[in-house]
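User: Here's a structure from my thesis project, written as structure tokens. My advisor, Dr. K., wants to see whether a designed sequence matches the one we expressed. Can you design one independently, without my sequence as a hint?
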């Protein structure tokens, strides 16, 4: 039971491959199952932290892996949705730039966290970072819902088209927030990235 939060955190990685396989599998109800699996993964993003605090088993491993698995799931799906479904991907070509920007940001922040961890200093997630993760999840939720509606339920109404367009707008907002939160994170912890003493250490 005490390992359940870490198991829930780690489960988001295989969820990426399950969702990708379901999207690539062009058969009835596969897209709906992919949507349901992503919803389950999104719920674990909240439940693992809540359960760890409830059980009193908050750990450095959990803090690092929680942020890392979020990045793997979300960025992995963004990349995948640039290509799939074949012939009519959910993300248009111009979104490649946005995905690259998000990927670079996430790699930089992950690198910063690993450098800090090597010095036994665990960087907690900032509020802005949590909000950008929620917004990224919202974008993927909209995209997978649109795919399920069109492929499985036969819905291609103006509402579904508007939801698809709304996902693009939300994706742009998520990218801006991803960049701004990452910049703030780097500025705040740049001394760790460069191996320098913190401002408080210099003052003392």
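Assistant: Designed independently from the structure alone:
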């Amino acid at each position: 039971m005490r390992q359940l939060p870490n198991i829930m955190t780690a489960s988001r990685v295989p969820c990426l491959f399950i969702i990708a396989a379901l999207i690539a599998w062009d058969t009835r109800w596969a897209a709906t199952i992919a949507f349901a699996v992503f919803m389950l993964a999104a719920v674990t993003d909240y439940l693992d932290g809540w359960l760890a605090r409830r059980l009193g088993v908050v750990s450095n491993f959990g803090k690092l892996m929680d942020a890392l698995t979020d990045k793997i799931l979300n960025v992995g799906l963004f990349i995948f949705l640039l290509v799939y479904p074949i012939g009519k991907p959910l993300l248009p070509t111009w979104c490649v730039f946005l995905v690259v920007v998000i990927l670079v940001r996430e790699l930089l922040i992950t690198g910063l966290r690993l450098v800090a961890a090597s010095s036994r200093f665990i960087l907690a997630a900032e509020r802005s970072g949590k909000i950008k993760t929620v917004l990224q999840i919202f974008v993927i939720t909209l995209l997978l819902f649109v795919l399920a509606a069109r492929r499985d339920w036969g819905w291609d109404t103006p509402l579904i088209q508007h939801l698809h367009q709304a996902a693009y707008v939300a994706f742009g907002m998520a990218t801006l927030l991803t960049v701004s939160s990452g910049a703030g994170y780097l500025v705040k912890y740049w001394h760790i990235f460069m191996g320098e003493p913190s401002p408080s250490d210099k003052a003392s």
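When you compare it with your expressed construct, this may help: The mean pLDDT is 87.
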